[in-house]
Design brief:
mainly alpha
């Protein structure tokens, strides 16, 4: 399997190539702000919410002291199995961290936010799409090598 830096280089190279193709072919699908949000999601998906959070990887070490949040995830999911499913794995990781964030919010404020969606839905979906694309590229590279 490719190493952490190989995954990072592959993800960023594919992102740059696709962005350049879209730019030079004048296939602008996003406004600049939306493209920034997609890129931010892609960055988070490449650096922090990767399929390798179920092992002692560089990605999990990036979480610093917060990496203990991923201990139950590591115990529940075996490396290379469901965590490396192109869509399912990313969705589970996003739900997992989302539930933790809402749980902490509830403990701090004794209620869930009255307006659960702080950002517009399209921005949230674009950000999540960036994460899912980055995770998909990670899994595809693992399947190739």
């Amino acid at each position: 399997m490719p190493g952490y830096n190989t995954h990072r280089r592959f993800n960023y190279a594919v992102f740059v190539i696709i962005a350049a193709l879209f730019y030079f072919r004048s296939l602008i699908l996003f406004e600049p702000a939306q493209l920034f949000v997609l890129g931010a999601g892609f960055f988070v998906g490449t650096e922090f919410i990767t399929p390798d959070l179920d092992i002692e990887s560089k990605a999990i070490k990036r979480w610093g002291a917060l990496r203990t949040l991923w201990l139950p995830y590591k115990l529940l999911f075996k490396h290379g199995k469901s965590s490396h499913n192109i869509v399912y794995g990313a969705v589970v990781r996003l739900l997992y961290i989302g539930i933790i964030i809402l749980g902490v919010y509830y403990v701090l404020f004794r209620a869930l936010p009255s307006n659960m969606m702080i950002l517009p839905l399209d921005i949230v979906l674009i950000f999540l799409t960036g994460i899912i694309i980055a995770n998909s590229l990670h899994v595809i590279l693992d399947m190739i090598f």
